[in-house]
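Supplementary Data S3. Sequence and structure tokens for construct A.
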Amino acid sequence: MRHREFWALVEEVFGAAYGRTLAADQVLGALGNRTAAQAIEDGDEPRTVWHALCDALEVPEARRWGTDTYRAAPPRG
């Protein structure tokens, strides 16, 4: 998963404004008590950050990948 794909999913799954707010404000224990945005800035793998964000917010697997039926779910790393 690339950074642009991460941010596109954030906006698609959570909404443009709310998704950016979540990424900037939601502290995630799975990311060492950092936000998703901090983890991305620190160079963490976007796939790992995406899974941590979705897990913390209990996003069902069926909703995690947006509406693009051709989008492959990135494997957990």
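Construct B, processed identically:
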Amino acid sequence: MAETTRVSRALLLVGVVLTAQLCACTAYGGDGFSVEFIHRDSVGSPFHDPSLTAYGRVAKALARSYARADAPSAHGVVSEITSTPFEYLMALNVGTPPTRLLAIADTGSDLVWLNCSKKGPHGPGPAFAGDAPSPPPPPGVVFDPSKSKTYSPVGCDSGACRELHETVCVDSKCAYFYGYGGGSTTSGLLSTETFTFADDAPGTRGERTTRVPNVNFGCGTTFVGKFIGDGLVGLGNTNLSLVTQLGAHASLGRRFSYCLVPYSVNVSSVLNLGARATVTEPGAATTPLIPSRVKSYYTIGLLSVKVGNATYAAPQQSPAIVDSGTTLTFLSKALLDPLVKELAGRIKLPKAPPPADLQLPLCYNITGLKEGQIAAKIPDVKLGLGGGAAVTLKALNTFAVVQKDTLCLAIAPSARSSLIGNVAQQNMHVGYDLDKGTVTFAAADCARSYSATVPGPCPRPRTRPSHLRLSV
């Protein structure tokens, strides 16, 4: 956690910036590979909005959290966490020769899909009645399958086609329709392509690449909603997700991990696949995955919350979704209400009202206080998980500044399942092992992990402006 002289410079809310360049530095070896996790509000991101003030970015981040966690499913059989609000992106090189795209990385859904051109003999047209072409506005990149030597549509009788809930046959090809919470939908042809993961940073010599052939993906020609990216990489717990496909094709195993750098640190986060996804840091806590209504979710059992010697148990095992794409953490009222009461009795700071448009339960006035002074006043919160695991949340995992001189608990009430968001996962190495059916958490210096993983001359991310700094 970076030391700064003033809270107004050091703290700024919630999951808004992990500065990164679009070079998507990638490191390789026999132990798998690692790619850069790019935050959507980074000055290097095509989604960066320079017109927003720092507090405007805060409001947008919070609104995305509520929309993603609470949006109802439009179709009932698809991802109930909407993937239109998103936080992280990763670079993909698709086809032969490769086309470089920047896609959403989503742990809450399964399908990998890209915006595709309809030109050429392989280009799929609208597959469902009422579909209309919707190419992404700039700065989106469109993949043209007619220019790739390795593109192939998938047949209707394939196992991959049967994995999808809504498909029809179009000239013996598998046409799909896929929806997200909030009403966003996409459709196109299920296809296969070669995906290449490489260190493509400018000035890098001696590139080492991992090529994975025959990856199933949706070659999408329509999208209804506000999405404006190049595509979406589903990292969920299903057979169609990129994690499962890489495990099968590249002998990497069905596992991945990430380490989310605190927002005040000027390096990128990292996403690991293969053996590098193994969490080996001291104090690692492993909890089993439990069945979920939506198979793609990574759901664990949340048994209790603890502050000091006070432990509050859930009335019954409470399912909690682990999601890097949601900024805030959401808890059921049975756990959140006593947690708020306990923290309020222990934190000796003047109370402050929350912003009128935010449902945050506990806020403080921090005028004139330095970062270290604030952190010293906030007790740890421990999450008791299934299998006897316990995860400690430090101040940077539980509180954030939501407007000038106002510090709020970055945990909100949920009428549905609990959800562990990316603020709670800062400076943690979080590993998902689909073969073992586990999620592992360990405290880590994620900035150092990134520096150790990415070798050679890959440029460091641009300096993050001081008004985008965050965390306590």
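Residues 7-275 form a domain with the Cathepsin D, subunit A; domain 1 fold (CATH 2.40.70.10). The two ends are 8 Å apart (CA to CA).
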